[in-house]
Amino acid sequence: MREKLFSLSLQDKLTVPGRLKAVHTAISGSIVLLINEDSTIIPFDRTNWSIIAQDSQIGANMETDPGYAQPFRPKSINSLLDCGFQLPRLQADSAPFLFAISPNLTGVVHVKAGANETPFFSVVKRPPRELDVKLLSLAFSHTHAHACYSNTSSDDLMALIQAEYDNLADVTQKQLLVQTTIAESHSSINFHLNTFNKESVDKLLSNPPLQKLLSLQLTMSDLGHRNVSGDIAWIVLSLRSTSFGIMFSLSSIYRQMSKKKAIDDNMEDSINRAECIILLVGSVKWFIDLLIYLNQELLQLSYAKTNPEQSIITVENSVVLPLLLSKVFLRECDDYITKELSSKWTDRAKLLQLEQQLFCSGEVPAELLPVAYTIIDRFSANNHRDPRLSALYFYDSRWLNVGAAHREYYDKHAEQNAGQSEPTKVRLQYSATEATDALRKVLISCKSPIQSGGTTPMGRYFNSTYKLKKCVRCRSVSLVSDPLVFDSARAIGLWTMVFQRNCICGSAWVNCGSDDSPK
Fold first, then answer.
1. Is 86 helix (H, G, I), strand (E, B) or coil?
2. If you ran DSSP here, which 8-state letter would residue 169 be given?
3. Which UniProt keywords apply (predicted)?
4. Dihedral of CA 332/333/339/341: which sign?
5. How far is residue 143's CA from residue 141's CA, in Å, rounded to a whole number?
6. 181 and 220 in contact (C-beta within 8 Å)?
7. For residue 134, how many other CB atoms are within 10 A of its CB?
8. Helix (H, G, I), strand (E, B), or coil: what is residue 35?
9. Strands (E), 339-460
10. In 3-state terms, what secondary structure has residue 216?
């Protein structure tokens, strides 16, 4: 085989002020960062090797140039730096330091070398000037879309969004930031429910970027107190984990039974199958109770048509109507809904806007109100003589913690602990001493708020000191180890092992202190 000869030749040189400490790339290699020893960071666009304009330059132009009287708008967006954000200087002096660039270029983690202190996360800064919430949302949605398709974590982006949300003083601007960020992120990943065929449910539950979108929607809804939008995100995330658990368990049972003859089946095999089935009980019950609750909402909406002021659940705060109208919960959409949508709106942009109002905002658009009332009337006509209506009406589904009627305890609990960033207020708190395991959908002993306890060494996930873990983003809690019923001589591969390190929302688990562990 003939060897190839390569030569190294100097093409150009780049001169920057200061003494260079390190060179890093970001955003899939499209940006080169030069980090100086004085902790300043200079970003370069790799396409033309030009310095990305820092906002101090933009601010100077805005003051002197009448053309900058309007809020700054970039021609294109490749990163947050194109939207006016700038990388901060990490420290005031030139002492040696250690650092790490966040995956989405939203900030830098840094600490002085040899210092006995916690590393600090400095987010990119947006200088004070006339705020363009739309541009801010576009910047966040573009960064989120890049995280989706590059399979990188977006926790650093959520930290920046939280900081920008807290910096806004106007409540209207805060709500606009939440709403537009969710909608623009939905558009950025090019996810359209209405373009799918009859297998839309399967695609909905298996689309990887959708998990990140739902996690963003869940977190942003918490920030803006948009309960219906958050409920929709949580329901679909839980549907994903439930369907995965059922498929994984059935596959494991079938694979085990197909490898052996019936005569060779032993007690250990029976224990494995039993544990697989028992661990699914909570998820299956959650799914059944969710169906019951959705029917409860339809029943209450049918009763509330005559006296809407006497009902907690209305068309405006209903969860079931956006779910049904956005075709999330239907394999084959009702003929009436399909006919109405296809006949009235052929414009794809209009359909996407309606979908975003339903799925992302949890609102029933005025154009779809007749369809919503028709669904309620159809349900009432089909079930008004059913003798099981009283059992349906009084069925206890509070533990789901979805819907306007079931938020009383959580809202009261959240007010008592408002303003506390640590410890964490548990999302699915059922009572003062119990919460719902977000993964297994069973009640566990857990007090809220809950304190972090630490992490386990790499490669040794289970530690008997920690019995609970919490999600760093969605505030869910779960058991560290599976509550096995039978004694087994060897480890059993259950479906929950896929979620050992990550929550169903995609973010990371952290262990909780032993004081909060279940007895």
1. strand
2. -
3. Activator, Nucleus, Transcription, Transcription regulation
4. negative
5. 5
6. yes
7. 14
8. strand
9. 434-436, 443-445, 452-454
10. helix
- The whole-angstrom separation of Cα 216 and Cα 60 is 35
Q: Which two tokens stand for residue 426?
A: 């548990």
121 has which bridge partners?
Answer: 109
- In angstroms, the CA 211 to CA 436 distance is 21
In this structure, what token pair is assigned to residue 367?
């154009």
Residue with tokens 């573009």: 142
Q: CB neighbours (10 Å) of residue 388?
A: 9
Enter the tokens of residue 416.
């008592």
Would you say 211 and 234 are in contact if contact means Cβ atoms under 8 Å apart? no
Taking only Cα atoms into account, the Rg of the chain, rounded to an integer number of angstroms, comes to 26
Q: Which two tokens stand for residue 34?
A: 């030069």
Contact present, 390 and 439 (Cβ < 8 Å): no
Residue with tokens 């289970």: 462
If you write DSSP's letter for every residue of 374-386 in order, what string do you get? Answer: HHHHHHHHHHTT-
How does 65-102 read in b/e, with b if 16+ C-beta sit within 10 Å?
Answer: eeeeeeebeeeebbbbbbbbbbbbebbeeeeebebebb
| pLDDT means over runs of 10, the chain (519 residues) | 81 82 88 88 87 55 41 76 86 84 90 84 80 86 86 88 88 89 83 48 59 88 87 92 90 81 75 88 94 93 84 89 73 57 66 82 87 88 86 89 68 46 76 89 85 50 64 89 77 83 88 56
State CA 220 to chain mean position distance: 8
Nearest one of 431, 465, 427, 464 to 445, comparing CA atoms: 431
Token output for 35: 């980090």
How many residues does the structure list for the chain?
519
Task: Give the C-alpha separation, 145 to 416, whole Å.
Answer: 36
